[in-house]
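Give me C-alpha cells for this 58-residue protein.
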Amino acid sequence: ILSFVFACLLALSAVSAAPEPRWKVFKKIEKMGRNIRDGIVKAGPAIEVLGSAKALGK
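Here you go.
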C-alpha cells in the first residue's frame, strides 16, 4: 500500500504546472506531495531500526 501511495506522489510531483494563476492550486498540491514524499523517505531508516529492534526483542 505504501509503495502505491509513493508511486502516486511521484507521479503527482512529476507533473509540471503552467504559469497561469489558476494552476496555483495544483502547485500547492504538488508541494504538499513533495513534503509527504520527503517525510516518508526520511522516516524509512527509523522504521527499519524499529523493525530490527522488535525482531531482536522476540
